[in-house]
Structure formats: structure tokens, C-alpha cells
């Protein structure tokens, strides 16, 4: 034991030394070229030397071995000297691709990154307004502030509220600063009471008090052509949401709830390609719909789904009562922290709005449980083709690691994970591989999802898409159907 310690310490010290060489190169790429780097999708943003070592260790899930820091360092040394435009570059995929191919490193990188060399696409950031500042609204604010610092494509300009007290703005700032589930805000927050502005990490968030969307003139605050994200849920059809479009300075509206009528329900990664320039009102569907639709799509594409039932085990939400009291909905009046509450969910039906091929094939129900965040969907599916547990798990693992849906679908195979382990997940859903059950054409999948933060990240992906600010990833990821 003692004889190995010096060697281990030496290896660790050399890793630290390499990571410290990598850090300034990552910073240069971001500051000088607006390039964000990752290792197999794990972003290297605001990282430490330890984070860099951990990201390279994570590569063993993809390639069955750790990625040596010595493999990515020369790539970064070349990248900082290349005339790169805005991009998200996966160092892990570049390193493994070059290892397989060999030859001249610079020539390899120039070929793989030809689309982004010399193409500087910095544009004026698109303004975003949050209409409502509850659980989802505040998480959207946190993500937008971080994304602006990372990519600069969208910027949070204002939140619209109903004033509830004389110290309303201080209370709102405090709720943004502290979160019992997601922890403290990563940065500094100050309040300019005179101008009704919350400053968060240098971002000026104008607080606008109003009770009717149509009465607001955003241009008076220097906001124009803004994307308004309505997270109040008060209006869910085209007529109601059109009230936002009567405001001066608004170009598009995105609802963070299932839309009614002919409002398009978008699950990013699945049907965001259906968004047209002429669409001014859109919905980001629900957290559960986002959590299950990507998994259902890849399973249906690979094996075919005859019929399925979706049972969601969902954390309680603000619309339930803390103690028994009147509620307009069945059962939801009973104490949320003390009971499992059987209720309805429209998520199974809503899947068909994003995946029309599954229309009429899914049923669903929900059980609200006494946890504050992170939910689970149990997908009980009858398939067209037979499969095995190992086969379907291997396929979903590959989808999570290699495909264009890797931001939507994650995969884990651990005997000890529980719901709190997924607080803060940025994925739409996480397949629990150890829980998978397969018997011929019958398949049961268990999918975790952070119904607050994972969903909020999906919303931001739609915002960036309609703003034309989604960063392209290089090398390009493959479609799930092309995985073997």
C-alpha cells in the first residue's frame, strides 16, 4: 500500500499540471473566439483543474477508458491558433477521432472544423422577458444569466410581476438568490430599488409590474423584438396568449405549459424542426411530456410501439395544499407532504402533439408524492418487435452518449441512485438501466426527470432555437436511427 502511494501521488500531480495548462486555453477559446468546449458533452465552463480531470475520467463511460489529458492538450494548443467562429467543440470526440485516424493533427482539425473556421457569427443578443417569476421563472432566469455569459446569444432583460408588497422587489431578489431545492445562486445579486432593477452577475433585470400583458410597452425599457416566456399558465390558448403580442416590443411568445387548441407543443430535440418563422405563439409542453417523449421516440423508431401506459410518480407542486383544505381539483386538496395523491395527467395524450405517430397509443395517470422535486415516469410498452433487457439498455446507453438526443436522454446504471441524485439534471429524462424489464414484446422503462431544472433547460433550448442562437456542436452528432 505505501509503496504505491508515491506513484499515485506523482500521477495525480502530473494530471493537475496538465489540467492547469488546459485551463487558460479553454478561457482563450471562449474569450477570443466565443468557442465553448466539452468532453463528450460535459461542458468545460467556469471549471477548475479538478473539474477538467473529472471530465476526462467521465470519458470511460463512452470509450471504456479514461481520456488522457495529454490527448486533449495538443488539440487545444492548435485550436487557439485557428481562426474559429462561434461553436461548441467536443474535445473528447476530436481526440478519439484523431487517435483512430492519426496523421497531421492540424490537418485533421481543419477538416473536422471546416464549417466554423473563419466564420464569425457573433450577432446582437435576442431580448428575453419572463412573464411570471415563480419556480420555473426563477430557474429560467438562472439558466439565462449563465447562458448569456457562456454563449451571448440570448439575454434576460426583464421579468413581469404583480406587485404584492412594498418590499416586493427585495423579496423577489431574495427568492432568486436562495432556493431550498437547487441551492444558492452562483454569483452576486443586488437590487436597485429606485429603478426597479435586479442586478445578477452583471445582468440588469428590469422588474415590470403589470396585471395585463397588453398594457406593457417594452420599448420604453429599451427592449424590442423580445421573446416572452409566459410561465404563469394563466393563458394557454392562442387567444389568451395573443395578449402578449399586443405589447410593444414583443416578437414571439413561449408558454411553459401544455398549449391548447392549435398551439404547437414543442419538445426540443423531437419536433423543434416544426417551428416556422411565422410561428409567434408556441408551447414548451409539460415537464412530463419532455421527460418521456424522447425515450418513446427512439423506442418507437427502433422497435415499434403497439400500445403503452405511462404512470408518472410526480413530486408535489405549488397547486396542491400543504394541509387539507378546499381545492377545485379532485384529491389535490389533501396535504401534499403527507399523502400520495392519485390524479390525472395529460402527458400521455400530449406526446401525440410532438409525435403524431403515437396518437391513440398511450394512456396515462399520475401519482403526486411527498418529495419537492424530481419525478419518475414508468413506461409500460407493448412492442412490435421483440427485444431483451440487455439489448434495449445498450441501445439507450448509446443514444445517451453519442446521439443528437444526448441532451434530452441520459442513462444511468447504478444500484444506489434515488430521486435526490437527479436534482439539477439538465436532461429531459434519465433512463434507469437497472430497472428495465423486458420480456419479448413487453418492455417496462423507468425514466427519472428533474421536473423543474431539466424542464427549464428544455425551455431555454427552444428560446435559443427561435432566437437563432443555438450553438452548433462539432463534430456533428449522429441520429439515433444511425446507431448500431
Word description of this protein:
It contains 13 helices and 20 strands. The protein is α/β, with parallel strands linked by helices and 484 residues long. It has 3 domains: 108 residues, no CATH class; 185 residues, Rossmann fold (3-Layer(aba) Sandwich), CATH 3.40.50; 164 residues, Dihydrodipicolinate Reductase, domain 2, CATH 3.30.360. Strands 6-7-8-5-4-9-10-12-11 form a 9-stranded mixed beta sheet, with helices on both faces. It has a 7-stranded mixed beta sheet with strand order 14-15-13-16-19-18-17, covered by helices on one side. A 4-stranded mixed beta sheet has the order 2-1-3-20. Helix 1 packs parallel to helix 4, helix 4 packs across helix 5 and helix 10 crosses helix 13.
The biggest beta sheet is recorded as: 9 strands, mixed
CATH names the topology of the largest domain as Rossmann fold
What's the total number of strands? 20
Number of helices: 13
Shape: globular
* The CATH H-level homologous superfamily of the largest domain: NAD(P)-binding Rossmann-like Domain
Using the 3D structure, state the CATH architecture of the largest domain. 3-Layer(aba) Sandwich
| CATH top level assignment of the largest domain | Alpha Beta
Amino acid at each position: 500500500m505505501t509503496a504505491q502511494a508515491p506513484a499515485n501521488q506523482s500521477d495525480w500531480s502530473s494530471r493537475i499540471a496538465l489540467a492547469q495548462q488546459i485551463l487558460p486555453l479553454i478561457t482563450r477559446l471562449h474569450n477570443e473566439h466565443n468557442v465553448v468546449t466539452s468532453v463528450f458533452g460535459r461542458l468545460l465552463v467556469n471549471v477548475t483543474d479538478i473539474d477538467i480531470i473529472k471530465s476526462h475520467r467521465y470519458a470511460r463511460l463512452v470509450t471504456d477508458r479514461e481520456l488522457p489529458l495529454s490527448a486533449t492538450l495538443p488539440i487545444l494548443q492548435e485550436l487557439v491558433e485557428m481562426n474559429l467562429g462561434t461553436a461548441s467543440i467536443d474535445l473528447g470526440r476530436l481526440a478519439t477521432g484523431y487517435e483512430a485516424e492519426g496523421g497531421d493533427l492540424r490537418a485533421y482539425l481543419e477538416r473536422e472544423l471546416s464549417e466554423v473556421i473563419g466564420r464569425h457569427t457573433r450577432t446582437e443578443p435576442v431580448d428575453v422577458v419572463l412573464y411570471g417569476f415563480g419556480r420555473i421563472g426563477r430557474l429560467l432566469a438562472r439558466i439565462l444569466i449563465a447562458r448569456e455569459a457562456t454563449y451571448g446569444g440570448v439575454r434576460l432583460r426583464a421579468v413581469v410581476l404583480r406587485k404584492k408588497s412594498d418590499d416586493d422587489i427585495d423579496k423577489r431578489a431574495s427568492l432568486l438568490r436562495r432556493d431550498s431545492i437547487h441551492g444558492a445562486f452562483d454569483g452576486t445579486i443586488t437590487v436597485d430599488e429606485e429603478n426597479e432593477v435586479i442586478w445578477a452577475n452583471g445582468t440588469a433585470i428590469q422588474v415590470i409590474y403589470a396585471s395585463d400583458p397588453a398594457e406593457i410597452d417594452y420599448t420604453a425599457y429599451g427592449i424590442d423584438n423580445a421573446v416572452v416566456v409566459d410561465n404563469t399558465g394563466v393563458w394557454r390558448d392562442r387567444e389568451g396568449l395573443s395578449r402578449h403580442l399586443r405589447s410593444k416590443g414583443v416578437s414571439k411568445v413561449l408558454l411553459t405549459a401544455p398549449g391548447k387548441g392549435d398551439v404547437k407543443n414543442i419538445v426540443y430535440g423531437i419536433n423543434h424542426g416544426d417551428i416556422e418563422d411565422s410561428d409567434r405563439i408556441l408551447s414548451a409542453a409539460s415537464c412530463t411530456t419532455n421527460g418521456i417523449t424522447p425515450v418513446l421516440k427512439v423506442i418507437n423508431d427502433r422497435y415499434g410501439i403497439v400500445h403503452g401506459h405511462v404512470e408518472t410518480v410526480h413530486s408535489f407542486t405549488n397547486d396542491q395544499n400543504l394541509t387539507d383544505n378546499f381545492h377545485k381539483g379532485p384529491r389535490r386538496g389533501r396535504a401534499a407532504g403527507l399523502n400520495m395523491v392519485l390524479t390525472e395527467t395529460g402527458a400521455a395524450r400530449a406526446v401525440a402533439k410532438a409525435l403524431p405517430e403515437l396518437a391513440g397509443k398511450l394512456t396515462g395517470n399520475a401519482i403526486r408524492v411527498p418529495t419537492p422535486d424530481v419525478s419518475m415516469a414508468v413506461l409500460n410498452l407493448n412492442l412490435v418487435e421483440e427485444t431483451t433487457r440487455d439489448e434495449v439498455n445498450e441501445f439507450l446507453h448509446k443514444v445517451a452518449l453519442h446521439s443528437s438526443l444526448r441532451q434530452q436522454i441520459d442513462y444511468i446504471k447504478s444500484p444506489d441512485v434515488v430521486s435526490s441524485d437527479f436534482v439539477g439534471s439538465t436532461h429531459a429524462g434519465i433512463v434507469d438501466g437497472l430497472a428495465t424489464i423486458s420480456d419479448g414484446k413487453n418492455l417496462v422503462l423507468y425514466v427519472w426527470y428533474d421536473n423543474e431544472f431539466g424542464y427549464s433547460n428544455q425551455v431555454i433550448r427552444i428560446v435559443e432555437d427561435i432566437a437563432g442562437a443555438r450553438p452548433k456542436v462539432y463534430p456533428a452528432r449522429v441520429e439515433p436511427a444511425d446507431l448500431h
